[in-house]
Design brief:
Helix content: 55-70%
Number of strands: 3
Distance between the termini: 69 Å
Strand content: under 5%
Structural class: mainly alpha
Strand order of the largest sheet: 1-2-3
Bound molecules: N-hydroxyamidocarboxymethyldethia coenzyme *A
Radius of gyration: 22 Å
Number of helices: 19
Shape: globular
Largest sheet: 3 strands, antiparallel
């Protein structure tokens, strides 16, 4: 029989802990970053000041999860991706079965979550519903209960992992219920105890789409959005909240609130809205010249082109490429997807001419909406919920890692303008 995820993590964590502690003991005073005033006033861009082992995003390469580049992850499913994020290894068949079962037995959601979601205003944003649903379950936190009973800090990771499995296992039901409630799709569909995460999510959404193709897209969606190192808004926010030993329900809900911003996860909704507006204006798939006009108008109005640019990347996002290839393979003639293709041919050339823009290339959000739209999931205010469903795995894995190595409360020092001035004006 395969080791349980708890046994597997215990073994890994023993090594990670001693390795990190020896390293810091020996090299703790070694300097790794200089910070300029522009960086402080510019969102700390490019400052190597955070630790994260679950994934890295080299600016010329894009997402690498636990040493495996995005382009080699496209055949994984959500369960494998979560296992990889947590343990640093792909599961063997036996480990996969054990881990998948550990998630399946945790998938049923407390009844009160449905009552809370049903009581929310009908025009609530789906991300508000998701964040509220997660927060409402805080009283179930294993970590919070065990913390109160006085567990030793070396065991914090164990109860954080328990919370992680519980939340990740329940989110497909919650996300699917939000879709059905928010857009009047009829009765909620019960989870199937035997189905895996992505399969069950597709089943509970109840979308009338070719099941195998749509399932492949959802699998890719779950893997591609699962993690993007530690400094993005959702991961960093979640880690800061978790560092106060607020449990994962509090911290994941907080991370989702950050994901709901238009410069972060909401960009997928914004990007599709932008594409559909252009299509409406030009009565169908616009030509490249028409897209150029629209891009210039958007920029002149002081707005960003959603789905383009990135705080870290300086190349086409490999996640964009994975979804783009999916569209090219399955429905290259779809009118919305063709608009994505034309936009991709036009936007980088325009953005390259604007010196302040560091990265003219598309990120993941430039394309995902068009694929979901193709399969009939047309309610684009819902798209960020699917991003969150996937990102929950990265937030959870990062929290387990942080508790495992005993990361302290995050508390950088802030200083006033006068202090900065005093550093340069002598
Ligand atoms: N369209 C127009 N202007 C853009 C731009 C775009 N796509 N990308 C960057 N810029 C502008 C910035 O707004 C900034 O202008 P100001 O100095 O006037 O404020 C300037 O160029 C410099 O920005 P940057 O250094 O290139 O990029 P940042 O690290 O500051 O920001 C963002 C990165 C992703 C927020 C930015 O590129 C953007 O707003 N893109 C559009 C929104 C988007 O697609 N967000 C999703 C990113 C991926 C993600 O997190 N997904 O969840």
């Amino acid at each position: 029989m395969a080791a349980s995820i708890f046994d597997k993590m215990a073994e890994k964590i023993e090594f990670w802990r001693s390795d990190m502690s020896a390293f810091v003991k020996e090299h703790g005073e070694h300097k790794v970053a200089d910070v300029t005033i522009s960086q402080v006033m510019g969102g700390l861009r490019g400052v190597n000041a955070l630790w994260c082992d679950t994934s890295v995003v080299p600016k010329e390469q894009g997402l690498i999860i636990r040493g495996i580049p995005m382009q080699d992850l496209t055949d994984l499913n959500g369960v494998q991706a979560f296992y990889l994020l947590l343990t640093g290894e792909l599961p063997t068949d036996e480990e996969y079965h054990e881990f998948s079962t550990a998630l399946k037995i945790r998938k049923f959601v407390p009844y009160y979550v449905w009552e809370i979601l049903k009581a929310m205003p009908k025009d609530s944003h789906p991300m508000t519903m998701l964040s509220t649903a997660v927060l409402s379950m805080q009283k179930e936190s294993n970590f919070a209960h065990h913390y109160e009973s006085g567990i030793h800090k070396s065991e914090y990771w164990r109860y954080t992992l328990e919370d992680a499995l519980n939340i990740v296992a329940k989110l497909p039901s919650i996300a699917a219920a939000i879709y059905r409630l928010r857009y009047n799709k009829g009765e909620l569909v019960q989870p199937d105890p035997d189905m895996r995460l992505s399969e069950d999510f597709v089943h509970m959404l109840g979308i009338d789409a070719p099941q195998n193709e749509f399932l492949s897209l959802i699998r890719l969606f779950l893997v591609a959005h699962s993690d993007h190192e530690g400094g993005n808004v959702s991961s960093f926010t979640s880690a800061v909240v978790n560092s106060a030993l607020s449990d994962l329900y509090y911290s994941m809900s907080a991370g989702f609130n950050g994901l709901a911003g238009p410069l972060h996860g909401l960009a997928n909704q914004e990007a599709l809205k932008w594409l559909l507006d252009v299509m409406k204006k030009f009565n169908g798939t616009p030509t490249k010249e028409q897209i150029e006009i629209e891009v210039n108008e958007t920029l002149a109005a002081g707005h960003v082109i959603p789905g383009y640019g990135h705080a870290v990347l300086r190349v086409v996002d490999p996640r964009f490429t994975a979804f783009y290839n999916f569209g090219k393979l399955h429905f290259p003639e779809d009118t919305v997807f063709k608009t994505v293709v034309h936009t991709f041919e036009v936007v980088p050339e325009i953005l390259k001419k604007i010196p302040k823009i560091q990265n003219p290339w598309p990120n993941v959000d430039a394309v995902t909406g068009s694929l979901l739209y193709h399969y009939g999931l047309k309610e684009f205010s819902y798209y960020t919920v699917m991003f969150a469903l996937s990102r929950s795995m990265g937030l959870a894995a990062q929290a387990v890692m942080n508790r495992a190595i005993g990361m302290p409360i995050v508390r950088p020092k802030s200083v006033p303008t006068s202090w900065f001035k005093s550093q340069v004006i002598k």
